[in-house]
Design goal:
Shape: globular
Structural class: alpha/beta
Radius of gyration: 20 Å
Number of helices: 10
Largest sheet: 10 strands, mixed
Number of strands: 12
Order of helices and strands: EHEHEHEEHEEEEEEHHEHHHH
Distance between the termini: 35 Å
Length: 327
Amino acid sequence: MDVKNPTPPVSIVIVAMGEISLVQRCVKSLLYTDYPRFEIVIVHLGRGDFHLNNLFKNFRGDSVKIKLLQLNKDPGLSASRNIGFKVCDIDTKYIAFLDDDVEVERNWLKAIVNAMETNPQIGIAQGKVLYMDDRKRIQSSGGFMDRYGWSYLRGKDEIDTNQYDRMDEIFFATGCMMIVRRKALESVGLFDGRLFYGYDDVDICWRFRLRGYRVMFVPSALVFHRLSATSSRKPKPARIYHETRSHLLVIVKNHSLKNLVISVPKIVFSKFMAGSKEFLEKDLHSGLERTKAFLWLLHNIKGIMQTRMPQNRSVRLDEWFRAKLSV
């Protein structure tokens, strides 16, 4: 049983895609965080030197431990987060995962940790995410999904009038900003390394739910995100391949068999029509990459089925999907 601690230690893992200016702004905001016990782990995908030592000294001196891991190749977002997690201090109770194009408000960490400390069944939480360039407009107040496997962000593009300012349960926390209970993560399992890009947040939250954990939205933890600053670094055909592959993988490995029969044909038909349109518009690279994603799924379907998590009959996700469709 966890011992109550008003400020349990936290590790903050940032996957940096190589643009120094983005991670500098992210780290600068983190160093002003009003929380006494946290470390920062930066996983840098690519070559080059960050030259961040001087930046660190300008703010909190040596009071914040910062670890920098330099990778020579890009293993994908999920695998990179796992690498960062494995070097976190062993005594940290929570792990926060941030994209490098995020900036945080001063009290974000205290607000979200306090919320998670109220209930040990809260396995993952996210704060309110606003657009970096339009700080009165919502990017995400929590992720939801219908029974057909289509995910969406509540409140996306709405003006923030505090309409979602209540702590409530969501289906998944957005990957640009989520905090995870360490013991739960070690029990459920780390991010799926096959999810190179996209749907990693849906997958891990879905797996937490299948184990009976809750995923919560904490509106008082405020962050700002530069939408697509990360995803736009990948060429369009590569994004299409990984998004299509990841979407299908997450649905097949997590959905109940009953819902697979309903959802998979609909998803396959939708993506087939998108691919056909790309071929007709002579966007051959995108169409071929979408086709490759389907072929990958077919080639690996046996292994994917073997990694399906047992469906916990006490977790009524079917009813939860239906209840949230109107959100």
